[in-house]
Amino acid sequence: MQQQIAPPDGGLATGGAAEPTYLKIDSAPYFDPAMAGLTAVGDRFRTGRPTNSGNYALGSRTQVIDFVRCSYLGLDNHPVIIAGATEAIEAKRPLDWSSAATPLRFALLTELEEILSEIFNARVLAFSSAMLANFCAMPVLASGLLTGGKKPLLVFDHSAHVSLAYHKPVAANETRVKTIAHKDMDALERLCRENPVVAYVCDGIYSRGSHSPIEELRELQERYGLFLYIDDAHGLSIFGPQGEGFARSQLPQELGDRTIITASLAKGFGASGGVLMLGAADHEALFRRHSIPQAFSAAPNLAAVGAALGSCKIHRSAELGQRQRRLAQRIDLFDRRVATAGQGNSLPIRVIAIGSETNAIAIAKRLFDSGFYTLVTFLPDLDQCRAGIRVCITAEHDVRDIERLCDAILENVAEITGKPYPIR
What we know:
Blueprint: H1 28-38, E1 43-45, E2 50-53, E3 63-66, H2 79-91, H3 107-120, E4 123-127, H4 130-143, E5 153-157, H5 162-165, H6 168-172, E6 177-180, H7 185-194, E7 198-203, H8 214-224, E8 227-231, E9 259-264, E10 274-278, H9 281-290, H10 292-296, H11 302-315, H12 318-337, E11 349-355, H13 357-369, E12 372-373, E13 375-377, E14 387-392, H14 399-417
Parallel strand pairs: 3-12, 5-6, 5-7, 7-8, 8-9
Antiparallel strand pairs: 1-2, 2-3, 4-10, 9-10, 11-14, 13-14
Helix pairs in contact: 1-13, 2-11, 3-11, 7-8, 12-14, 13-14
């Protein structure tokens, strides 16, 4: 069964949860089987990737190796970050300021934004989540206030994350919105030639392991004045000498007034919250004075600010590079054992292509029973009959655990599908 709602601009209709103008429920039969043991698992997390099962265990197993969480550098339980959170609360109090950041704010929040601005070489605004950061920026971008008063044609990548695509209906009230195929640079260049102002909305690293062609996007920006809005939630910390991220590390030293990068302070950064990286003083002033989240939403709580300050200490130390190199070694180890579409791209996300949703769920359950917690990806995340198993590799994974996971993947794919991996 499928219900379709016409996209607001008559552009490319794309299926999935990330597309509020196009609703598909073909995947409904697969959610319940996946929920039965593979989602909403309550765990008591320990140092590293092993987790103790809390309110749920599959069979008699009480511990699994976590390949789901996106703490790519293993910082989410780092003692410096935990200490930063607790010390901030104990020293300053209260936990939450209960006020928007514009009229009144934690002094530590100002300190955090100043330090992040130095690390990322941009003007940084901090929010309680990356979703809220996007909520702050997307309507302003659509309004034309960031593009000289001229409303841009707002072009979304087909695979842009839900925290971006969710804003399409709001943006469509301000300007024209179009969706193009994933990483279709020819289509994007054609739109740049045909329209006076174009803004492109994409991820730096996509949640299924691909990445945007930053160099090609820079060329289009130089040639046509393309405005780039890049969500680099999965790229922060794991790339760049200061952890500035996949996108920022490939862009000019001066970010300029035609680029905004948004990112998560969770995931690789290991703390909590989100940021906007801006390249223009007037853009910063605009957001601080007029954006809805700044005016009406509470700032990050004190624990989140303290944790982020702790992570900043790590980002300014030799430990960051050590963890980045350890992560790269583990990604290479996985790639040498299991072939995927992302093989060799240095990103920490790998998707094992299975095909059948039923087979993907069965394989994931087998992996869980063998002691490995992975994520099943299917509709609305992937096209029908293109289900897979997503693996997030981190610097904290033990080498032997990665080797055992690879063996378990190859063995269980062959047993469940009747074909050796990769499935042809």
